Amino acid sequence: MGIVIALIIFGLIVTVHEFGHFICAKLSGIGVVEFSVGMGPKIIQKQKGETMYSLRALPLGGYCAMEGEDSSDETNPKSFRNAKLWKRIIVLAAGAFMNFVLGFVMVFVMMMMYEEVPTTQISGFSGVRNDDDSITYYSASHDAGLEKGDIIVSIDGTRIFSVIDLSYMFGTMQDTEHEVVVKRNGERITFTNVRFHNSHPESNGGMLDFGLVYKEKNPITVIKGSGDVFMSMGHLVGMSLKQLITGKLSKDEVSGPVGVVSAINETTEQSESTEDTIFNLVYMTALITINLGIFNLLPIPGLDGGRLVFCFIELIRRKPVKPEHEGYVHLAGMVLLFGLMIFATYNDIARLINN
Prior knowledge:
With 355 residues, the protein is an alpha+beta fold. It is 51% helix and 21% strand. Helix 1 (2-27) packs across helix 6 and helix 2 packs antiparallel against helix 8.
């Protein structure tokens, strides 16, 4: 069942991406030869106007084939290459934009499933109230100068947008001194010697030494909370890419579609209730679609970002790069991407076998 759900999620994400290209191409007067949901053999197809709409057997992707994408035909007014430059830029960026829209919608659904909306504002610290109404604190972060009402802005230079960033930081940081920036009364204050450590005898030395403010759900708090979590997810994807490029992320941790399907299947099987299953699947859908949107905008040949680079080159040169030259570059990029996909799939299969 988990595998079927994973395929549905993949199909939704890719279809939304390709629909972004499709609708902007149509609105820009660019001809669309085929809009396909899925890959492989055709199950259903229907010709409507200039466009063939098809549903294919493998729900692993889809595509939007536009007229004149990879060739130059000056006589065809509906050719992609004959469209104005700003229209081509919009069409190319529309796929990633739709992924971000889907991501925000998924995050919004997550926020609606919360009883209250979490923030990054400190509500209080670990401690006990004494008989004389004084408080004995067991919180190392309070001892370092943090106060109730502070909004955490960054930890060790890592921007904190939402509770997701805090969870990530507390899950990876060591129990050492950290640089923490907070917003207090509208001003930013930096502390350089903050430790997050609960010294209460019953805490076992845990790092949860403060609480967070949770706000009542209303349109404003839900939309703001959704925006914060959306930014956190994009931030996590960006940090992962940076770690991969700089070598801080091991090549063995690189995962592909098989790994994602496995993770979704595991999530489906291990969730304790239907509500937990839905929440976790919505979370993973949001993270995957935001990941796809960001990855597609990278300036890598063969991706939308690589094609946008050639648009910007044309903007600077005032003339387009020859289609055949651009085609060679994108072909090389696709070969590299396929190589990366094969490597990631090998990692996924090896990880499944070892487990």
